[in-house]
Design brief:
- This protein has about 350 residues and is of the alpha+beta class.
- It has 2 domains: about 110 residues, Hypothetical Oxidoreductase Yiak, Chain: A, domain 1 (Orthogonal Bundle), CATH 1.10.1530; about 170 residues, Malate/L-lactate/L-sulpholactate dehydrogenase, NADPH binding domain (Ribosomal Protein S8, Chain: A, domain 1, 2-Layer Sandwich), CATH 3.30.1370.
- It contains 10 helices and 10 strands.
- A 7-stranded mixed β-sheet has the order 1-2-3-10-4-5-6, with helices on both faces.
- A hairpin with a 7-residue loop joins β5 and β6.
- α1 crosses α2.
- The longest helix has 19 residues.
- It is globular and about 55 Å long.
- The N terminus is likely disordered.
């Protein structure tokens, strides 16, 4: 990474525990069991703490709409369909995606401890927040974590086409280090995640050029006109190819939705999305001494940071470095919520009959 901008963080925000309690209240009010609500709330707020603003509590009103409309099952039976030594397939029974992916990640880690690697796919899941959440879970257990999924709305045509048949199909890879933060890549296969565009529309902010194009191939910078255009894949046809392959592995292989079967949950809150995801945990000790590997990750961090920079570039940054700064700040000082989001959450609280955020 070569951006010159420093992390933008707030020195005042809403307390972590207060935000978790609010999300829990909202979910319990729509028939999510309290224990499940606590787990989902923790993961949603963790997303905000990591700086994934478009994948945290911002999504709560949409989840509630899906639950109330029948698009999400509030009381699911998450079960293992196929189970082998190093791999498994989970049926989420249309549960909140966070519950499905937490179970899948725990199972992948368990299998990796036994076999060196654990690959777990899901079907009948839902949106589960930012990709890095689950890759980081593996890294915290001294493993390498990989996560990828089929996005919850088609926003990308095949390269050269005009029908949106692919989603952002994100991927995350987390590698633990020793003295430095974990090196964590979390990226969409498009130049931006669509959640960021939704957030910008809520804030009445313009998009940068290069994120979307209209149907004539011209830059589209008004996020409120997003339905008139397409997302742009990273690296042109390479990003399209990566999105396609991730879709085959997380969607088709798992018996989950892909291509024309994908349900846009931002427009249809009633139809189950049958989201497909994959989490892979790799036990470092199978290949190397864990401490030596983590020291090696530290050394590579230092090598990258020591690179001379181009004119106008203040420093080289590694994947996950900015996130580590944001996380530290937000855990200490709380999570900033924009006025528009705060208003949406207050309206949700009133509609559900639960206490507003303080």
């Amino acid at each position: 990474m070569t951006e010159t901008a420093k992390p933008v963080v707030s020195n005042a925000g809403l307390g972590i525990d207060e935000l978790k309690a609010f999300v829990t209240r909202a979910l319990v009010s729509v028939d999510i069991p309290p224990a499940d609500a606590v787990q989902v709330a923790a993961l949603m707020v963790e997303a905000d703490a990591l700086g994934s603003n478009a994948h945290g509590v911002f999504r709560l009103p949409q989840y509630v709409d899906q639950i109330q409309s029948g698009g999400i099952n509030p009381r699911p039976t998450i079960r293992i369909l196929n189970d082998k030594a190093g791999a498994a397939l989970i049926d989420g029974d249309n549960a909140l995606g966070h519950l499905v992916m937490k179970r899948a990640t725990e199972l992948a880690i368990e299998k990796a401890r036994q076999c060196g690697i654990g690959w777990v796919g899901t079907r009948h899941s839902n949106h589960a927040g930012p990709a890095q959440l689950y890759a980081r879970m593996a890294a915290e257990q001294e493993m390498v974590g990989l996560y990828f999924c089929v996005g919850n709305a088609n926003l990308l045509p095949p390269w050269g086409g005009t029908e949106v048949l692919l989603s952002t199909n994100p991927i995350a890879i987390a590698v633990p280090a020793l003295k430095h933060p974990s090196i964590v890549l979390d990226m969409a296969t498009t130049n931006t995640a669509f959640g960021k565009i939704r957030l910008m529309a809520q804030r009445n902010e313009p998009m940068p050029e290069g994120w979307m194009i209209d149907r004539q191939g011209n830059p589209l910078t008004d996020p409120k006109r997003a339905s008139e255009g397409f997302l742009v894949p990273i690296g042109g046809p390479k990003g399209y190819g990566l999105a396609l392959m991730i879709g085959l592995l997380a969607g088709t292989l798992n018996g989950a939705a892909f291509g024309r079967d994908v349900v846009d949950y931002t427009k249809d809150s009633k139809t189950p999305s049958n989201t497909g995801q994959v989490i892979v945990a790799v036990d470092i000790s199978t290949f190397a001494d864990v401490q030596a590997f983590k020291q090696g990750a530290d050394a590579m961090w230092d090598v990258m940071k020591s690179s001379p920079t181009l004119p106008g570039v203040e420093e080289v940054r590694l994947p996950g470095e900015r996130t580590a700064h944001v996380y530290e700040e937000r855990m200490a000082h709380g999570i900033p919520l924009g006025a528009e989001l705060r208003k949406a959450l207050d309206e949700l609280a009133d509609r559900l009959g639960v206490a507003r955020l303080r």
